[in-house]
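I would like you to help me understand the sequence and structure tokens below and explain how sequence relates to structure.
___
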Amino acid sequence: MLDRKQFEEALGEVKEIALGMEGPMTFEECKKYFDGMDISEDQLNMVYQFVANIKNQEEKAPDADEAADQEETKSNPIDQSDLSSVSFRMYVEELASMKKIDDAEELALYEKYLSGDDGVVDDIVNTWLPKVVKLAEGYKSVELLISDLIQEGNMGLWTCLTGLPDDTAPADVPSILTSAVIKAMEDYQAETTSADDGEFSIVGKANLIMDAKEYLAKENGQVPTDQELADYTNMTLEEIQGIMNLYKEK
């Protein structure tokens, strides 16, 4: 799998070099900065298009006098979020190509792991990576880079998974891991922003409820009650009903 940190560092370096060149960077010049990485030709083309667009924006930028007049009112259109966007699209594309497993196979992995088989850890993590992305996407209203949210969520996933008690019920693992991922993202939000963004927590819990509702419906063959959702997610019945009513109103 592509090392996203190494990739983003290389992408940032290519961006700076491209901006400093008199002419456009060629595809081959761009490609050499990613030698040795697990990256496809299509992904390289995406990177090259990104670099080319940056160069075009730079060439269309106002001259020095115009820039000085606009400095206080116009922000730089090329920032770290651009790099994160390219990396994110490639990451999602890579996850989409990975093998999918059904609920029964996933439950079997939890059973093996809780029985002492550490060899399935990577399989469990890979199964959860797309779920972490889904949870992170629920926080679009928050001014945080989605790549950072995903990274924090993945760390929370790993930490929780490797610390699960052996007597954990396999069926409880999804809700436990989901809660850990959300908490990791909320902790990151609290550390990096000064605003009191209660919506962040609400959206995270709403995602947890929806995932629990889907899982329990498949597991039991019927739509779960509010109390069953509360028991499964470790939330109070009042929280469940309050959040569900909030989203009904929206």
Q: What stands out?
A: The chain has two domains: 4-96, 103-249.
